[in-house]
Structure formats: C-alpha cells, structure tokens
Design a protein that fits this description.
Number of domains: 2
Largest sheet: 5 strands, antiparallel
Number of helices: 1
Number of strands: 9
Radius of gyration: 19 Å
Order of helices and strands: EEEHEEEEEE
CATH class of the largest domain: Alpha Beta
CATH topology of the largest domain: Chitinase A, domain 3
Structural class: mainly beta
Helix content: under 10%
Strand content: 35-45%
Amino acid sequence: MIEAGKTVKVHYKGTLDDGTVFDSSEGRDPIEFEIGGGTVIPGFEAAVGEMEVDETRSVTIPSAEAYGDVNEDMVGLVPRSSLPDDIEPEVGMVLSMQSPDGEMPVRIIEMDDENLTLDANHPLAGHDLTFELTLVAVI
C-alpha cells in the first residue's frame, strides 16, 4: 500500500467496454500525481495505491468511482436561435456555456431545426472504465 502524500508515476491505457481507447500515456511521459491528492478519479488512485513498482495490472473502475452516472438534470434543450450566427452547430460539437460557477463545457447530443439538446455531463459519465496500469515509480 502506497502511503498518502507519496508521488507516483504511472503509464496507463484506458478503454471502454467495447474496447475503444479513450486515453493513453503511450508515447508520452507517465502521468504523475500524489496519492491522496484527489487529482485523478478515485478508482484510478485506489488501484495505483495498491501496486508495487514495475507491476502491471488491469482494473475496471465502475462509473460511480470514475466520472459518475449520467445526471439527466445536466441535459437540456436550448433554442437553436440562442447560438451566435457564426456558429454552425453539429452533433458532438462542444460549446461553452456560462453558469453561476463560471464557464461549463456542453456537448450537442441531438438537434433539429429549432432546438439543440445539450449535455453538460462529463463525456465518460455513465461508463465503466478499464485501465491497464504500470507503476513506474514512487517518489
């Protein structure tokens, strides 16, 4: 067990249930973070915290320990006319909306001639995530 406050370096590859790779450190430096620092998703940190240097393991993190479940309250309709004239919306496009807490990214998930359906959930919300992890170093 790696104690809180220690910094770790980890190579990783993250995949969805269908095998799609959503992120990887391949070709880059390993990710570096402090155990207990709360800078990575809880399930990722917990799995790394149980590893030994040079160990490789695969771990599946349920959505609740990753980016959470999809919150339907974060999905809503807005009139297409509310967009600036110079933006041509497309499904999948990420826009920035102003919220009481500052700017918030939203994805267009559906649209018709009059309305856009926007989703402010994290793109990986609702997904169980599988990571192949290799602990490179504990500092």
